[in-house]
Write a structure and sequence with these properties.
Layout: E1 8-14, H1 19-33, E2 37-45, H2 53-58, E3 63-67, H3 82-91, H4 93-110, E4 114-118, H5 121-129, E5 136-140, H6 157-170, E6 176-180, E7 193-196, H7 202-206, E8 214-219, H8 225-234, E9 239-244, E10 252-256, E11 259-263, H9 266-275, E12 278-281, H10 285-294, E13 298-300, H11 305-316, E14 320-322, H12 328-337, H13 342-348, H14 351-369, H15 377-380
Parallel strand pairs: 1-2, 1-4, 2-3, 4-5, 5-6, 6-7, 8-9, 8-12, 9-11, 12-13, 13-14
Antiparallel strand pairs: 10-11
Length: 386
């Protein structure tokens, strides 16, 4: 396979939250612009989350869903409950075994030249169990946590170790890992990690920015709505627009004239972010990067160790300030001192060229160096394609 050959790819995406889904959309835009084809998208989902409509509407290729492990929220629906999550996922192991078989079957039937895994653990396990004879590239900001130069917060040693362990499970036997990062790092050859800019969709770059008079926010777990409303009761004159993942709520829930909750809507999300004066979030990587690109100051309220890592990294880049709750006063104070991060925007503007070239180079190296003695699963076991 030569460098300029067009490639067929299959995406496997972790469907929890919003970040990996928008990364897959951005990656597809970039690759198809260069003539490559995404033939199918496999999305891991759970019973507690609903895949946003914007993803199914925009991905524009066949989609198939499978049961995937996830973390259950605590009783107050704010943070994740580790032991409940372990017990719940243990009971669903038979279902996950079916998912692994489904992933294997789709990879074989797709005749793809490349598998792109957006942090889905069952895809990592599938690649550890079977030899497909095609490369797998794992994409996610979490791979930066495995980089030798990245400094973890160091506050929660056990949780940080578990996060790294989980991350390694997602990329077992991967050909390479693309770590999405807010700033440049050298390649980590030992861990086989290449650091690239965040995967932001073109709409983030093209949406016209302005400074409105409202605060915008995003809360993955609806339990945080009580905190937002408690602050709002004390400060009813501040205009607030918050997005949440509440399947029982209407598309737009207007509490009063100055507080509105919105179901996740991609177009509305970017429009409101482009016009807000500041942004409050539970420290999801993707939306923090979107705010950073648009020049919006952030307040980050981490709910688990991964988001704690994101918040620490964002503070290093002066993108935002951490908080233990939704104290909008703290965000307002930070916004007064905030300066637009031009360096990040320059780094992000290189994303398409950098990411596409990196993927093409990985494919070229893999196929040029591939020995005929390597076990090509599709050729040695053709009966399993049926």
């Amino acid at each position: 396979m030569m460098y300029n050959e067009k490639k067929k790819m299959i995406f496997v995406v972790q469907g929890e939250g919003r970040g990996h889904l928008t990364q897959a959309l951005a990656m597809k835009q970039m690759l198809e612009k260069e003539g490559h084809e995404v033939v199918k998208v496999l999305v891991g989902k759970s019973r507690t989350r609903k895949i946003p409509k914007f993803f199914t509407r925009q991905i524009d290729c066949p989609i198939e869903y499978f049961a995937s492990p996830n973390f259950l929220p605590s009783k107050d629906n704010r943070k994740f409950h580790l032991f409940r999550s372990i017990a719940y996922n243990t009971m669903l192991v038979p279902s996950y075994m079916s998912s692994i078989n489904m992933i294997r079957k789709n990879i074989l039937e797709s005749k793809a030249d490349l598998v792109v895994n957006f942090y889905e653990i069952l895809c990592g396990i599938t690649y550890s169990l079977f030899h497909f004879g095609i490369p797998e590239i794992c994409v996610g900001h979490q791979y930066l946590f495995l980089h030798s130069d990245f400094q973890m917060p160091g506050k929660y040693r056990v949780s940080e170790s578990l996060l790294k362990f989980f991350t390694r499970l997602t990329c077992m036997r991967a050909t390479s890992k693309l770590a999405l990062s807010m700033r440049e790092y050298d390649e980590d050859a030992v861990q086989n990690i290449k650091v690239v800019p965040p995967l932001l969709r073109k709409e983030v770059r093209t949406t016209v920015r302005h400074r409105g008079d409202y605060i915008m926010g995003y809360i993955l777990n609806a339990g945080f709505a009580k905190n937002v409303m408690a602050w709002h009761e004390k400060h009813p004159h501040t205009q607030l627009h918050f997005f949440w993942d509440n399947r029982e709520a209407p598309e737009e829930y207007k509490v009063d004239d100055t507080l509105t909750f919105h179901r996740i809507n991609d177009v509305k999300f970017l429009q409101l972010m482009a016009g807000c004066k500041a942004y409050a979030t539970t420290a999801g990587f993707e939306s923090v990067c979107e705010a950073l690109y648009m020049g919006k100051p952030c307040m980050m309220i981490p709910v688990h160790v991964e988001q704690e890592c994101n918040a620490v990294d964002a503070e290093r880049e002066l993108a935002g300030v951490r908080s233990s709750d939704f104290d909008i006063n703290k965000l307002k104070a930070f916004a007064h001192e905030y300066e637009d991060n031009v360096e990040f925007r320059m780094w992000e503007n290189r994303a398409e060229t950098c990411i596409v070239a990196t993927i093409e180079n990985i494919c070229e190296d893999y196929y040029n160096n591939k020995s005929t003695s390597i076990w090509d699963y599709r050729q040695v076991c053709p009966m399993l394609e049926r």
